[in-house]
Amino acid sequence: MGFKILEYLQPFCSFLPEVSKPERKIQFREKVLWTAITLFIFLVCCQIPLFGIMSSESADPFYWLRVIMASNRGTLMELGISPIVTSGLIMQLLAGTKIIEVGDSVKDRALFNGAQKLFGMLITVCQAIVYVVTGMYGEPADLGMGICLLIIIQLLCAGLIVLLLDELLQKGYGLGSGISLFIATNICETIVWKAFSPATINTGKGTEFEGAVIALFHLLATRTDKVRGLREAFYRQNLPNLMNLMATVAVFLIVIYFQGFRVDLPIKSARYRGQYSSYPIKLFYTSNIPIISSLPSSLTSTSCPRFCPLSLLETSLSISSEPGLRVGIRDIL
Q1: How far is Cα 122 from Cα 102, in angstroms, rounded to an integer?
Q2: pTM of the model
Q3: Which residues are within 8 A (CB) of 167 and not within 5 positions of it... i.e. 6 or more apart?
């Protein structure tokens, strides 16, 4: 038997802002408008830097996770959708295992959604504190107590904005889900920037453009050996190249092609004899849920290495014949 703790959380949930349900049917044009406004706010937050942080040239520990997290380093969208995903997964797990009781009534579902939002805000605060304490934006002693508190408040407000934007779309004002929309927007922004970025980088062989398409025309125009310039545009290292872009387009086309594959599962009615129907199951039925589900463990392993027991075990296991090679517990598990 589960615990009825949702009713105890109701007074705390009332302090959180909430998007009311639409009183009328939202037209398609209005949904497109609200979706565009949501994306505009998200993209603007992705470009506003956090006030008070110290610039750091160190490697980004979340570089490979930021596409899934829909986050941008050093900006208001530092945390991205990770608090929403983590709180949703944990609350669904607690409800599915009957640790907490969630009824089918409208009141119980509203309490569950409010508790999930409250839990998301708590996760936002915890992640913000961990980011500041572990020196993501500079040493806390150098920043000072006031700046550290200001950074946490900024991340908390940004997390609340993400929660409200996601709730706005889920309540029927926009199209689709906020999480999927933010991930897709972040991916598309990354692809367009890597393909057409006008930023110049000194690679040691001269100044080159970061964008793969712009670099193609630049290399063909500046190199005397056109074949070599074309080869550099396709296979250059440490910068986006045309092979990366073509591989990305190929993956998109393959996914779109397999998205149409489905299996029709026959269903027989138990009440009415002889009545049959079918339930379509897509090949990509799980969509991006397995990748998103791996976010909490990935965030835990990378954001708080000094607090995690698994990380301590990882540092203690190494291959003596090759000091540079390390075997992690997660690889064994």
Answers
A1: 21
A2: 0.71
A3: 18, 19, 117, 178
